Amino acid sequence: MKGDQIIKQALTILTSRLTQPGAVITSPELAYDFLKLKLAELQYEVFGVMFLDNQHRVIEFDAMFRGTFDKATIHVREIAKKALLLNAAAVILSHNHPSQNSTPSQADIRITEEIKKSLNFFEVRVLDHVIIGGTNKYSFAENGLL
Which residues form the MPN domain (predicted)? Predict the structure, then answer.
């Protein structure tokens, strides 16, 4: 489909811009746009982490965990290990809801708190957790949950 081709091209351009040496997340909207393109159309849950340096430059985005249509198993240890390996100073957590509903579940809230507490021990800040539900997004930071 032509629409799929356009999305793929946009994602390629945005990924290229965000992963260039020195690319900086200058606004939440830039991160949201990237995450929407990466996650919105998936029919299964994916939990991804954007690893950032101390200037909020993107080190890497990793779709770390893949699940089913309604859940994914998250391993906090693996997120911490990767953050330390990349020498990340901050992260933006993200996942999609294939149901198109971007409202966080109690499990989403609990895992976010667990990740935040664990990474804090290593002085890695969680800047946001973004849930993508189709074209909608829910930001934990914007809604006071971080």
Answer: 24-146
- Determine if residue 141 is left, alpha or beta; phi over 0 gives left, psi from -120 to 50 gives alpha, anything else beta: alpha
- Mean pLDDT, the chain, rounded, equals 88
Within the chain, what is the greatest distance between any pair of CA atoms?
47
- 25 burial level (CB within 10 Å; 0-12, 13-18, 19+): buried
Looking at residue 43, the DSSP 8-state letter turns out to be S
Domain ranges of the chain: 2-139
Q: Which CATH architecture has domain 2-139?
A: 3-Layer(aba) Sandwich (3.40)
Nearest to 116 by CA among 73, 145, 143, 82: 145
CA–CA separation, 51 and 78 (whole Å): 13
Strands in 1-146 per DSSP E? 46-52, 58-66, 90-96, 125-133, 136-139
Radius of gyration of the chain (CA): 14
Provide φ and ψ at 124, rounded to 5°.
-110, 120
